[in-house]
Specification:
The complex is a heterodimer of chains A (about 400) and B (about 325). Chain A is an alpha/beta fold and about 400 residues long. Helix content of chain A is about 45%, strand content about 15%. Classes of the chains: A alpha/beta (about 400), B mainly alpha (about 325).
Chain lengths: ~400, ~325
């Protein structure tokens, strides 16, 4: 009997120690919980490491589960802030009133291709891209393409179109560009995180699309800039809003596009649903670029588990992100925020308040309940002589 | 102390606890099924209200805000076509493997091969998916799809399209490979369970190996083999990861399976693709939950049919024995 009691106690300790020690750690460090877009995750993860070096008491936990899921968690107020590649749409904004949009970095979508015999330098215009992705241009030697690429010999081959199969911010940016440059696209397909593609193969994630293009001759698709650069893929030069210039996607040309757009943005607590920085004017602007946002409540008191201290930690972290954090962008192939956007973010962050009463930590209550449950199970089993082993 | 016999009243309590525990465990299954149905039904109410029956028969799939319209027909068909093709390829091979392992194989081959097959059944589907995506599809495309397309592409509709290797054919082939271990492992067990007296009787009458199978083994194990195949079908219908990676993920009318060499979509793959980014405000999420409900109904339907089939075969078999 004593052996069994000891076994029970040991079992109880094994179960209890992690829970209690977790809440003990929680008293010394502040953990910020965030979730959302996968696109900025490498950068956010870098921020987590760098910020922890200078503020060892703050531990960021960002789960890259996708923009849509991030918005869901933001709406139900269970994360301290969320990441999203697309701004809140009117319907979503009405479910999460008092949300601030904090653009935290800039990304770009490239049109990448695999044509044997054609290396770098394919030029495309917005309407041509729209026609390819809607199936109206089916062959690489279509007159529309050869007319603006007189120096290239394009093959008489079917174009294999690849697109994202999962809902994604990348698709949102790409289709909002196509909607802007092609009326035909706007009326027949439109913009969204997943749209009714008339042709093509769907692949999962940037890596999936990149993989399909690499392994499929005569294919075309759209991929985030970082994937193209890391995988040495070729991307098309795209005609920008100025009309006579075909621009290669680089960090500099994307920054040029964003800088032009920064002038006419709403304030952080305004309506961002119509914000798009695609196809901005300027000689060097690469046209398919986008902000990615951190969503945070103006009144942090309504977020579950929030305390005065934690609210301060959230604001401090976000302030660090838009200033010192930006220096890590370039090496990870993200574009640093233009000064005008940083100013806008500063104004937004200065509005954050904390009015709610402190909320008791769930971790401790759960631990106590668990302890009582386990002790009573052991007590009952000891009392009634329940045995794991058969009696002899 | 341990060897001391416990007092009577303690064992009565233990008996009670055992009874309650077992009952609770059994109830658990029912509760889960009821909760699943409840969640799927309530979660998909908005889509049934808006689309009605055309959610099942329609083929448009548009989640763009303001233009929302959903129809699940291409995905329902896609599920049946891929699972059906996989069964068509997988079941004969599996039964062949089971026959070989249970009767024909020499002893020193039998054990290692059975072990390998059971090992294959335990490989996670994402591994099959990755292997299909990076290795298998290129061989399929170059050696099977392109020749067939070049020969018949313009005349025979099932070989038309544009073979990239990411299509209904590739997905079905990999599905077939995935269900083979499941079906063959169970079929082998079932064939081994055929009483020796049956086989010996057949041999005694001068039957060849094939005739033994035909006269003794197959009739005796028919219901079990059907059950094993249905288990494989269950896996093929519900398989998500590998299919999503290989089927090409078309949406809307272009996802209708009108040729082998074209991208398609199944019910489970569209849920996997779009669930995480589905809008919380529109009808996108209810539509995906609605597809989940249809998938659930299909799975239940398959199981019911399986039970009926097995029951019928059993009955016929009994009749045969009596006659």
């Amino acid at each position: 009997m004593t052996k069994k009691l000891l076994l029970g106690l040991a079992l109880m300790l094994v179960l209890i120690i992690p829970t209690t020690s977790l809440s003990a750690i929680a008293e010394f460090t502040t953990s910020l919980n965030a979730a959302g877009a996968t696109f900025p995750f490498p950068l956010i993860d870098k921020w987590r490491v760098e910020y922890n070096k200078i503020h060892s008491d703050v531990q960021l936990n960002y789960q890259s589960i996708g923009s849509g899921a991030g918005i869901k968690l933001h709406t139900t107020k269970v994360v301290d802030f969320a990441g999203s590649d697309a701004p809140l749409q009117p319907g979503e904004a009405s479910q999460a009133p008092g949300t601030l949009h904090i653009p935290e970095t800039i990304g770009a979508v490239t049109v990448t291709y695999n044509i044997p015999g054609v290396d770098k330098g394919l030029k495309l215009t917005g309407p041509i891209i729209a026609n390819i992705f809607s199936g109206k241009i089916a062959k690489w030697n279509d007159k529309m393409i050869t007319d603006i690429n007189p120096t290239l010999t394009l093959p008489d081959q079917q174009i294999a179109v690849a697109h994202r199969s999962d809902g994604s911010g990348t698709t949102f940016v790409f289709t909002s560009y196509l909607s802007k440059v092609s009326l035909d696209w706007q009326t027949s397909i439109g913009q969204g995180k997943s749209v009714p593609w008339p042709v093509g193969i769907g692949a999962q994630g940037n890596a999936g699309v990149a993989g399909v293009i690499k392994n499929t001759p005569y294919s075309i698709g759209y991929v985030e800039l970082a994937y193209v650069m890391q995988n040495n893929m070729t991307s098309a030069f795209i005609q920008n809003a100025d009309g006579n210039n075909f621009v290669e996607p680089t960090l500099a040309t994307i920054a040029a596009d964003a800088a032009v757009a920064a002038g006419n943005l709403p304030s952080a607590d305004g309506d961002w649903s119509k914000v798009s920085i695609v196809n901005e004017p300027g000689k060097d602007s690469y046209p398919i670029a986008s902000f990615t946002y951190l969503l945070v409540y103006k009144d942090l008191g309504q977020v579950s588990g929030m305390t005065q201290e934690k609210a301060k930690a959230v604001v401090d972290f976000l302030n660090w992100v838009i200033h010192d954090g930006q220096q890590y962008s370039t090496s990870l192939l993200y574009v640093p925020l233009p000064d005008a956007v940083v100013k806008l973010d500063e104004q937004g962050l200065s509005q954050i308040q904390y009015n709610g009463a402190p909320v008791p930590e769930f971790g401790q209550i759960a631990a106590i309940v668990l302890a009582i449950a386990i002790i009573s199970i052991i007590a009952v089993s000891a009392k009634t002589g329940l045995r794991f082993m058969p009696k002899y | 102390m341990r060897r001391q016999l416990g007092p009577k009243k303690n064992s009565a309590v233990a008996d009670k606890v055992f009874k309650i525990g077992a009952t609770v465990a059994a109830t658990f299954v029912l509760v889960i099924i009821v909760l699943v149905v409840f969640e799927l039904a309530t979660g998909s109410v908005p889509i049934w209200q808006k689309e009605g029956a055309s959610f099942i028969t329609g083929s448009t799939w548009n989640s763009v805000e303001g233009r929302e319209s959903y129809g699940a027909a291409p995905y329902i068909l896609g599920t049946f076509v891929t699972a059906g093709l996989a069964m068509l390829i997988g079941v004969p091979i599996s039964i062949g493997i089971a026959m070989f392992l249970s009767e024909l194989a020499p002893k020193f081959v039998r054990t290692p091969l059975s072990f390998v097959i059971e090992l294959l059944a335990a490989v996670p589907s994402v591994i099959y998916g990755l292997w299909g995506l990076f290795v298998f599809r290129e061989y399929l495309r170059d050696w099977i799809e392109m020749p067939l397309y070049n020969a018949f592409g313009n005349n025979v509709w099932i070989f038309s399209g544009n073979p990239f290797g990411l299509d209904i054919f590739t997905a079905s082939m990999v599905l077939a490979i995935m269900i083979i271990p499941t079906i063959s492992a169970i079929s082998r067990e079932i064939m081994l369970a055929v009483p020796n007296s049956q086989k010996e009787a057949a041999y005694m009458l001068g039957a060849t190996k094939w005739e033994v199978f035909k006269l003794a083994v197959i009739p005796y194990s028919k219901s079990g083999l059907i059950g094993a195949s249905i288990l494989g079908l269950g896996r093929a219908v519900g398989e998500t990861m590998a299919v999503t990676m290989l089927i090409g993920n078309a949406t809307g009318p272009s996802a209708f399976p009108h040729s082998l060499f074209q991208p398609g979509q199944t019910m489970s793959s569209i849920i996997a693709n779009e669930f995480s980014e589905a809008s919380t405000t529109g009808l996108h999420l209810p539509a995906l939950v609605g597809i989940g409900l249809i998938l659930f109904v299909v799975a239940v339907g398959i199981n019911i049919i399986a039970h009926l089939l097995v029951a019928r075969v059993l009955k016929a078999h009994e009749g045969a024995v009596l006659a």
